Amino acid sequence: MKGFLAYQNEENMGLFTDLYELTMCASYFDNKKFEPATFDVFIRRLPPGRSYFMFAGLEQVLGYLESVKFTKEHTAYLRKQGFDEKFLAYLQDFKFTGDVFAVPEGSIVFPNEPLIRVTAPIIEAQLIETFLLNTVNLQTMIATKASRVVYAAKGKSVVEFGLRREHGIDAGMKVARSSYIAGCQGTSNVLAGMAYEIPVYGTMAHSFIMSYEKELDAFRAFANTFPAKATLLIDTYDDKAGAQKATIIAKELEKKGMKLIGVRLDSGDLADTSKAVRILLDAKDLGYVIIFASGDLDEYKISELQNTGAKIDAFGVGTKMGTSADYPYIDVIYKLCETMNGKGEFCPIMKLSKNKNTLPGRKQVYRVTDAKGNYINDIIALANEQSKGEPLLVKVMENGKLTYNLPSLNDIRTSAAANIAKLPAKYKQLTSHSQYPVELSQALEDLVANLKRKITENEIIADQPEKQ
What we know:
CATH architecture of the domain at 6-142 and 327-359 and 392-421: Alpha-Beta Barrel
Number of helices: 16
Radius of gyration: 27 Å
CATH class of the domain at 6-142 and 327-359 and 392-421: Alpha Beta
Structural class: alpha/beta
Number of strands: 19
Largest sheet: 7 strands, antiparallel
CATH superfamily of the domain at 6-142 and 327-359 and 392-421: nicotinate phosphoribosyltransferase
Distance between the termini: 66 Å
């Protein structure tokens, strides 16, 4: 049992990295390459049919940067991997000392925009890459997916129900957090509820119904245990017969001064069944009883249910949201954009690989809005130039210390709702083909052109054979 859950300890985050990060850092150390450099976290491209991302994960990134370290156990393991003793001694005293700028969580962002900008001694900046990408990928992916689900629900409650299908404990916790940021009402994940103070929701499983000889007995037993918050699963055998029995329980609760919260549908034709169940409930003067639906839902299925007039009041969305099943990753990148030369001057740098080129230099993102605050376009500019619009990147760390007042999860959720409301509707369509305009400032365009020409010329000259 030694390895079970041990890696989840905060003490072990130093080794939560790819081996090549450590091998590069060891070579930097060996060659006395300690100068500062700047890296950008950004997302290269959108999945097909989507027009935006909702950024999430910054709080966990900052917590990691404040606490990352290497223990004696870590260095003992790395010694077995062939790392030099002097480098291991460096790791033993490792502490992140860099400066970090980032966009706030809950921001709506677009491809190629810097989301996190790290300036630090190159060993430090290199070593943190894997954690940053892992964290931003998962939480931004889920927050974006959940925001689409919430948008499709058109104001009706959405509860995150995917814990049993999500990819492990860490993912289960972060999915609950990210989906709540994006507007979900709560989660089925009890640990996330306690850790993040997220509302928790749950009803019952079919096995509970089946454990009783009669469905009505199961309903009655559950309502006796939870008379003030019972929601009954009515489709174990026959949904309409189950709904009839639920009305009996509702009337029994009324006699006790209580109310049945709702009934849950988890299978079949949810649109037609919900309409029939609504008629049945209303006929018994049970208009207050909500109809809760679950079962392989996502934004597309919810939109279809809404368009067909389904009488569903709330949705439980699990696997397809909790794993972002249609696009289970985002193309998030961490790339060098600036190095320091021998004179102590920062010099912009860029990658020219086909379809994978990057933007050089320290950058800022400016958002241009109309008089009502609605988004018009974004401008990626150099950090030292002025541009129209409001800057999105804010300083969050200086010299390895937090300079940012971390907002509460509810404050992030409120900001996320305000931000998505400012994004024009054409970019929120579930199969949007509208591309939000993101442009480069003239100064950045000029830098790209000049640097590209300089790099190309230098590489051509370097490739020429020496004259004899």
